[in-house]
Amino acid sequence: MVDDVSTDQSMHIVSAFKKLVDSSKFDITLEQNKKSMGTYWIRNSVVHRHINSDTIYLVNDSDDFSCCQRAGIQLSLLEKADTKAIICFGDIVRVDKQFKLLALDGKVERYGTASLACRANSHQKYGYYENIRKNADTEFIERLRYFEGKHSTQWFRYPVLFQPFDGMNLTADIYKVDNNGKSMQSDLSQRTKHKEIFLENYKKINKDLSRHFSYPNYLNNQEYLKQIPEFLI
Questions:
Q1: Are strands 2-3 and 31-32 parallel, antiparallel or unpaired?
Q2: Which of the two ends of the chain, N or C, has the fewest CB atoms closer than 10 A to its terminal CB?
Q3: At 67, phi and psi to the nearest 5?
Q4: 7-21 burial, b for 16+ CB within 10 Å, e for fewer?
Q5: How far, in Å, CA of 191 to CA of 33, rounded?
Q6: What is the pTM of this model?
Q7: Residues 133, 135, 136, 137: is their CA dihedral positive or negative?
């Protein structure tokens, strides 16, 4: 567990929890960053430790709740002998603080990159996540589709993740909840523009993705970075 300079007593909570866990069965490591590095930097640092293994990791952000069958479902999909998928992800269900369902356009289940599962060693070939504030999951998925084909990603229609929405989430710029508890889609322009920019950027880089999307050093050109100032850390 990596604490990114939090102010909500996370370190104390985890330390107390660790004492309750059988360390012979669950080896929990606890680290604290000296300065805030951001969500995707932390994710890359964890992936990097397992880059040479057969580890499959599942993304579960601090404000998300995975269903108890999630790991079994997603690992079985990626371990099928005939699968060409490098990553898979399912639907997410957005709820309020009391876990009441938040429907959008009459639908409760939504496409959700937050439920991503991936083989750690795949980052050797396809590179790491961009170290930006948001949308790096989408960029990585689109990177695989662009350079490897649509078969490289698998989206299955089953809710595996519950995401409480309090307006402080990374997707708070996409969704809003009115005073009546009704969810609505907000402004997608920044993320849509970002997708247009990184797709255009793909044309300018060769297929040596591991070098371009490296960790801990990133080689994105300055022209690209100047186009996405609101995404930079």
A1: parallel
A2: C
A3: -70, 155
A4: eeebeeeeeeeeeee
A5: 28
A6: 0.84
A7: positive
Which helix or strand (DSSP H or E) is residue 77 part of? helix 70-78
- Which residue, 25, 129, 114, is CA-closest to 74? 114
Residues 6+ away with beta carbon under 8 Å from 192: none
Report the alpha-carbon distance of residue 231 to residue 225 in Å, rounded.
9
Distance of CA 123 to the CA centre of its chain: 14
As given in the structure block, the two tokens for residue 3 are 């604490």
Q: Where are the domains of the chain?
A: 53-231
Report the candidate in 8, 203, 44 with the shortest Cα–Cα distance to residue 127. 44
List the pLDDT tens digit at each of the 233 positions of the chain. 888 888 888 888 888 988 999 988 888 888 889 998 888 999 999 999 999 998 999 998 777 899 999 999 999 999 988 888 999 999 888 887 788 887 777 777 777 888 999 999 999 999 999 988 888 999 999 999 999 999 999 998 888 998 887 655 555 555 555 655 555 545 457 888 899 999 999 998 877 899 889 998 777 778 888 898 888 88
